[in-house]
Design a protein that fits this description.
The structure holds two protein chains of two kinds.
Chain A (H helix, E strand, L loop, with lengths): L1 H7 L2 H33 L13 H28 L2 H32 L8 H21 L4 H15 L2 H11 L17 H33 L4 H11 L1
Helix pairs in contact in A: 2-8, 3-4, 3-6, 3-8, 4-5, 4-8, 5-6, 5-7
Chain B lengths: L2 H27 L9 H5 L9 E7 L5 E3 L2 E7 L4 E7 L11 E13 L2 E14 L7 H13 L1
Parallel strand pairs in B: 4-6
Antiparallel strand pairs in B: 1-3, 1-5, 2-3, 3-4, 5-6
The chains are: A mainly alpha, B alpha+beta.
């Protein structure tokens, strides 16, 4: 088992694994996205209170869940990099940050667009919205810290510690609507808040599409990162030569 | 201990330290993180009297009175309720039975010897709940509720 992991974590094997996985992530992503959008916009009925305006939930909730999931992956991969010094874990952590920040921005932006007509305000400083904004700042801090060092090993060490410290924010975001009075409503997912089966299916499809999007992004970006890190090794030079010619 | 175990312990200490600090911080600041007070909180004196704050709850049924741009209504948490006066545009979701959060401050209005608290709102936001369903389901739920 340990041998197998070590082999998988060697840059060359990891690079070719990513290459092979890309189509396995791309096609499911496209299919789930198209079917999910159709289910969200056409099949699902309008809400009894919010009419068609509630449909932004099908983007908002998957992005918000992914923004936290990606952070957890990033911090855990960073921790694995720290403890076992697996370089490919550092690569996964590093390339996760931009798309995690992207999901956070989408969650915040769709939330604001949704909040204006329904609540009457683009933004309020309640615990849920504020802690999600802190998550965005954590991603930005991670990315700046990671690019502040010339040596990738030092960069990974420093930024992984930051990522692990920031883990505390995830339970705060998740439980903010339970622990405090917030303007943001409580959980809809997992509590039977979404009563219509078509709404549930649409949300599930969009969620799976988002996971495939994340996996696709990581497998594409990790390849680039491996090439940059291993630029002095022979297999990379051969690979690049074959790509260029 | 090998170096790897050493690092494992360090990361473990880091994680537990951070979570302990976070727990204590949340404990200490939990009052400040409340976005609004409920009518019960206000009547039991938990809300500040010298500065503005927010009150949250449901708009009481048959309490909304419109007078031009000025709206009077009561906010209730099903235990206590408080009268609110607001002048301005209300969000689309505002209606009787709907959750709202109003920011403003409280004044003590006295008519003769009877004094009651009135909340002067500067902003009213609608708070919607976590339920999403088509109108037919909402109607069905409503009718089963009224049968009970």
């Amino acid at each position: 088992m340990w041998k197998w992991i070590q082999r998988q974590a060697s840059p060359k094997v990891f690079y070719s694994t990513c290459t092979r996985l890309i189509p396995w992530f791309f096609w499911p992503f496209i299919s789930f996205l198209i079917i999910g959008l159709y289910w969200s916009l056409v099949v699902s009925p309008a809400d009894y209170q919010q009419g068609d305006g509630y449909r932004i939930i099908f983007i908002h909730v998957p992005s918000a869940i992914l923004s936290m999931m990606v952070y957890a992956v990033m911090a855990i991969a960073g921790g694995i990099g720290l403890i076992w010094q697996i370089k490919m874990a550092e690569v996964v952590a590093k390339v996760s940050a931009p798309i995690g920040a992207g999901f956070t921005i989408i969650a915040l932006a769709t939330g604001a667009i949704w909040g204006k007509p329904m609540w009457g305000a683009w933004w309020v400083w309640d615990a849920r919205l504020t802690s999600e904004l802190v998550l965005l700042f954590l991603y930005l801090a991670y990315m700046s810290l990671n690019s502040a060092f010339d040596n990738p090993k030092t960069a990974a060490k420093a930024s992984s510690i930051l990522a692990i410290v920031g883990l505390i924010n995830l339970p705060i975001i998740h439980y903010s609507v339970v622990w405090w009075n917030t303007l943001h409503q409580g959980y809809s997912v997992g509590t039977g808040g979404i009563k219509d089966p078509d709404m549930q299916i649409a949300l599930a499809l969009m969620f799976v599409a988002s996971i495939f999007l994340y996996a696709l992004y990581v497998s594409i970006k990790a390849r680039t990162e491996v090439l940059v890190r291993e630029q002095n090794s022979r297999w990379v030079q051969e690979e690049v030569r074959s790509l260029v010619s | 201990m090998t170096k790897r175990q050493n690092r494992m312990v360090l990361v473990g200490l880091l994680v537990s330290g951070v979570f302990l600090a976070g727990y204590l911080g949340i404990k200490a600041f939990s009052e400040n993180l409340l976005y609004f007070f409920t009518p019960s909180d206000i009547l039991s004196g938990k809300a500040p009297t010298d500065k503005s704050f927010r009150v949250g709850g449901l708009v009481e049924n048959d309490s909304v009175k419109r007078n031009g741009m000025i709206v009077n209504f009561s906010v209730t948490d099903n235990l206590e309720s408080i009268d609110v006066i607001y002048e301005g545009i209300l969000p689309d979701l505002f209606r009787e039975g709907q959750g709202v959060v109003a920011s403003g401050s409280i004044v003590n209005k006295c008519v003769g010897s009877v004094c009651e608290n009135t909340f002067i709102a500067t902003e009213v936001l609608a708070k919607h709940d976590e339920n999403y369903m088509p109108p037919e389901v909402a109607a069905a739920l409503e009718s089963t509720k009224s049968k009970e």
